[in-house]
């Protein structure tokens, strides 16, 4: 991989440009052989292309894109390169026919991000928040010009929905792999798209711009600035007035938000002002609108694909109803919950919208759907590729990033191989396809369920966090695959997206897809500084509600409010494993310190070599006091309240320990955090608290202090918000652990490490602080017959 500065890069001999030249030289020689659609021409280095398809490229391609800038990072950049390289090999027998330039921040470089290693060239860019790099339109355009790329792919997030990007790239003579700026604004902006939907007579929920319609003359649609402003609310007072007219509960939305940012649910007028300010803070400068909250609804999507010649099609639907903080966590395709005739209406409406504004490339129309009535409401159109697009790829067998690239180069939909196959046509044919009335209407193949892997702690309201990855092992199968933005020895920084992986499972039925995904997630091994959602995802997929497809957009938030947790190890097993891990870490550290002192000629006291450690673990208000003694090179002896346990231990080279307890073996790992111990036993996690000091207000994650909600020296009640911090592009509100007077140590704008002291709290009544109650029980008695009894029971059951 090369770093690009300002020098020109030259096409390789087997690049697309070279193949195009060979096509031109060959056209005359093969013109008389067009009747044989499967004849092939051999080129250097084994590159082959069907003659017919080569001629289609020669006729239809308006520009050649062999060097592409990816204005993105993380899994977006990884997916783009994987998909286009697959297409390049299928078409040219050269996966590097299209080369990629990537932008690299110091943080991504330090985190050893996977996309950097995959790229052909990289350009260093400033670090920090994405306004300095991946969302900086001027910087992206400047890099595109300096590196002389033919096209830019923005993916999702960052600058992908900023109409200024395609506009400036067009002026610079660089192709944007996506919609033109006018279509992006008309359908990408949530306010404008709702007005367009109302103009197209598509149902919408009551909102601050209800009944507004644009000027449309069947060829051109116009939304004036005055009309747009009528749909916006500019102040909390104006927004509250609109909300009261619509009726609570409502949603406050930033029109330029996305991915869970710039959206808040408000149940009553008292909470409106603070929620409005949070939306403003998450998407600065964005217009804001208010919309009625739909209860018991499903979030359904229609995947669009449109070319530069007015053709637009639907590639079936997706169900993305399982969300937390308005961010999707599990997705499915197709949208099986919808009535077939109703969903056909939704698809036709989506295609109508795309054609109305001259939309080009991939896009997604989002609807709210009420299963009880079959009613649907337009929500928004995302003028970009969605994170969950592989769900559609797997049921439609269409490579979407590759299709985007071909459309950007000028190919019509009916000359894209995957689309022709989907509609039952010869892949190399010349015929046009009547997409509105096709000879063969496409249907989805099987069912797909996808799960997003994020660096969030489900036990603490999905709090995001960052850090390094020690191990990542995903076992793919014929029906399950996944991709990740990090690998072992890599990591996630505080400016990264919390999603670092995506797993997809296919089955002939929804239940088969569910079972395949559960098995894959149980085999997924991720060990790092941060918690992940893997265990929680397994629990969700195994609930009766999910299996029966009886869910809605509020389902997961309700489970979180009820503090539903993933399956945990037996608490006493956690105490045993935790005690040994903590004691061994302490004994090992003391020995290393003693050894280091000896090497320096210093002699420490014999207490430094003590092999006995007193361990305290707090869980659910109980304090477990365990005396752990290293009784041999591979053995430990534990004592608690007059009961004893002796077990064999073996250290693993990756820092873990293999424990043999009561005839069973367990692989365990310890993570010593600021205020807790995290113990991983197999594929399950148990967390023990340390003694907490509520007078110290600490940052729960690395990030940035955005705002203090209490004056210095001001008073807060227990549970009252006292500060807002930004963690991995999300705003988190911190609540006071007890009542008292706040004294600030840090000011807004400060960069935070995990555990950093933000301020102190002078408690109103220190005596009210609850302490853990000593556990008075004992270790369980070993039961060697338990397993044999279970096996005998199963044997007798099936024998009968």
UniProtKB/TrEMBL annotation:
<comment type="pathway">
    <text>Lipid metabolism; malonyl-CoA biosynthesis; malonyl-CoA from acetyl-CoA: step 1/1.</text>
</comment>
<dbReference type="Pfam" id="PF21385">
    <property type="entry name" value="ACCA_BT"/>
</dbReference>
<protein>
    <submittedName>
        <fullName>SFRICE_016115</fullName>
    </submittedName>
</protein>
<dbReference type="Pfam" id="PF00289">
    <property type="entry name" value="Biotin_carb_N"/>
</dbReference>
<keyword id="KW-0443">Lipid metabolism</keyword>
<dbReference type="InterPro" id="IPR011054">
    <property type="entry name" value="Rudment_hybrid_motif"/>
</dbReference>
<dbReference type="GO" id="GO:0004075">
    <property type="term" value="F:biotin carboxylase activity"/>
</dbReference>
<keyword id="KW-0067">ATP-binding</keyword>
<dbReference type="Pfam" id="PF02785">
    <property type="entry name" value="Biotin_carb_C"/>
</dbReference>
<keyword id="KW-0275">Fatty acid biosynthesis</keyword>
<feature type="domain" description="Biotin carboxylation">
    <location>
        <begin position="64"/>
        <end position="561"/>
    </location>
</feature>
<keyword id="KW-0436">Ligase</keyword>
<keyword id="KW-0444">Lipid biosynthesis</keyword>
<keyword id="KW-0511">Multifunctional enzyme</keyword>
<dbReference type="InterPro" id="IPR011764">
    <property type="entry name" value="Biotin_carboxylation_dom"/>
</dbReference>
<feature type="domain" description="Lipoyl-binding">
    <location>
        <begin position="688"/>
        <end position="762"/>
    </location>
</feature>
<dbReference type="InterPro" id="IPR049076">
    <property type="entry name" value="ACCA"/>
</dbReference>
<dbReference type="GO" id="GO:0005524">
    <property type="term" value="F:ATP binding"/>
</dbReference>
<keyword id="KW-0547">Nucleotide-binding</keyword>
<dbReference type="InterPro" id="IPR011761">
    <property type="entry name" value="ATP-grasp"/>
</dbReference>
<dbReference type="InterPro" id="IPR005481">
    <property type="entry name" value="BC-like_N"/>
</dbReference>
<dbReference type="InterPro" id="IPR049074">
    <property type="entry name" value="ACCA_BT"/>
</dbReference>
<keyword id="KW-0276">Fatty acid metabolism</keyword>
<feature type="domain" description="ATP-grasp">
    <location>
        <begin position="217"/>
        <end position="409"/>
    </location>
</feature>
<dbReference type="InterPro" id="IPR005479">
    <property type="entry name" value="CPAse_ATP-bd"/>
</dbReference>
<dbReference type="Pfam" id="PF02786">
    <property type="entry name" value="CPSase_L_D2"/>
</dbReference>
<keyword id="KW-0092">Biotin</keyword>
<dbReference type="InterPro" id="IPR005482">
    <property type="entry name" value="Biotin_COase_C"/>
</dbReference>
<dbReference type="GO" id="GO:0005739">
    <property type="term" value="C:mitochondrion"/>
</dbReference>
<dbReference type="InterPro" id="IPR013815">
    <property type="entry name" value="ATP_grasp_subdomain_1"/>
</dbReference>
<dbReference type="GO" id="GO:0046872">
    <property type="term" value="F:metal ion binding"/>
</dbReference>
<dbReference type="InterPro" id="IPR001882">
    <property type="entry name" value="Biotin_BS"/>
</dbReference>
<dbReference type="InterPro" id="IPR016185">
    <property type="entry name" value="PreATP-grasp_dom_sf"/>
</dbReference>
<dbReference type="InterPro" id="IPR000089">
    <property type="entry name" value="Biotin_lipoyl"/>
</dbReference>
<dbReference type="GO" id="GO:0003989">
    <property type="term" value="F:acetyl-CoA carboxylase activity"/>
</dbReference>
<dbReference type="GO" id="GO:0006633">
    <property type="term" value="P:fatty acid biosynthetic process"/>
</dbReference>
<dbReference type="InterPro" id="IPR011053">
    <property type="entry name" value="Single_hybrid_motif"/>
</dbReference>
<dbReference type="Pfam" id="PF00364">
    <property type="entry name" value="Biotin_lipoyl"/>
</dbReference>
